[in-house]
Write a structure and sequence with these properties.
Blueprint (H helix, E strand, L loop, with lengths): L5 E6 L6 E5 L12 E10 L1 H8 L1 H4 L11 E2 L3 E10 L9 E6 L4 E4 L1 E2 L5 E4 L9 H4 E4 L11 H23 L7 E4 L5 H13 L4 E6 L4 H7 L4 E4 L11 E5 L4 H10 L4 E6 L14 H7 L3 H12 L1 H19 L4 E6 H14 L6 E6 L1
Parallel strand pairs: 11-12, 11-14, 12-13, 14-15, 16-17
Antiparallel strand pairs: 1-2, 1-4, 3-5, 3-7, 3-17, 5-6, 6-10, 8-9, 9-10
Helix pairs in contact: 4-5, 4-9, 4-10, 9-10
The chain binds NADP nicotinamide-adenine-dinucleotide phosphate (NAP).
Amino acid sequence: MSRRCWDFLIDRANPSRGRRVDHFGGPPAIDEGDILVALKLMALSANSATYVTLGEQLGYWGFFPADDGWGRFPAWGIGEVIATRHCGFAAGDRIFGMLPPSTHVVMRPAAVQPTHFLDGAVHRRTLHPAYNHYTRLNDDASPGTLPDEWLALLRPLFLASFLLHEHLAENGWFGAEQFLLTSASSKTALGLAQLHKAHGGGPELLGVTSTRNLDFVRGTGMFAQVLDYRDLATAELKTVSVVDFAGDSELKRKLELASANGLRRWTSVGATHDATLPAGTDLDAFVDRLFFAPDHLRSRMASEGADEFERRLSSTLSRFHEEAHHWLNLREWRGPDQFEDLYARVIRGDLPPHEGQIFYP
Ligand SMILES: NC(=O)c1ccc[n+]([C@@H]2O[C@H](COP(=O)([O-])OP(=O)(O)OC[C@H]3O[C@@H](n4cnc5c(N)ncnc54)[C@H](OP(=O)(O)O)[C@@H]3O)[C@@H](O)[C@H]2O)c1
């Protein structure tokens, strides 16, 4: 890892604009009770762009404060404790959770357990508990057996796929004959599609994607039919429900017209197509309707217990990881200059779906 210390800051009013701030004095000092964590790697995907897009509405800028008007978005990654003034941690301990695009971050562990802890920093107390939770990657306590890169990339997205699948199955797929996923090339959509296929039954699963990603989505073999966004105006759908990862209101209008009996159910999960924030987007209304995985996670854990939920999630995640090797390769990005390029491409949606982006500082 580079010895340089830097933060990458985003202009909150214009997220396509970022700048690196170098810290020539070295990493920040820590107080009693703190740990200093060095970023080892982080995974970026359209989900990271959505954290930026919805940063104000869902509080994503609150994780890692920056100067006025600027922000550091959270991304899922792995860090290593390199200095500690907390008796529950030693140098070399590894953690998994939300980390900033920075070489270093100071954390204030709370509720410390052998397997996990919370960042109890004052500025994070109003954030969703799922986001303040960090897993300790001890040899005997790692979730599943995924290698670090795959863990950071797939687990947060597949968690949403898993919770969505249970929600939809428990609700009888809302009585639809066909279930359609927008942005079908996204990893979260493919996780849901894989679970649907593995469980069998249920409605026919359709995917809709952009022209450039059609062959890829068809090649995964997970959908009964794959449509191009451009063909929706002439598509003839049966009784259909939609899980929407795209967040595109024009798309919704087209699907309403294409469905013979109207849409049975519309579940908003993401906003891959809104990463550039078109003027007039009603993001507050979007957030109100959102299927928000952390809320569903909290109720699952309350009803069945964290250990049982983790066991079920880990075994299905391992299967998804094995299958993902057929359609997904990791692509490495290293150092701050490459980070700028990677970030710009994530925000523009300029990355192929068969790649998982892993950044090493
Ligand atoms: N609500 C929740 O709790 C929750 C949890 C996890 C994920 N999500 C959301 O699910 C969505 C998918 O995330 P992911 O990380 O799985 O995505 P991903 O694997 O990075 O998916 C990339 C795909 O998204 C579409 N896309 C991305 N950027 C685009 C752009 N600028 N313009 C047009 N299309 C773009 C393209 O698909 P197509 O060509 O197929 O459209 C692209 O192939 C995100 O919005 C994420 O925030 C929500």
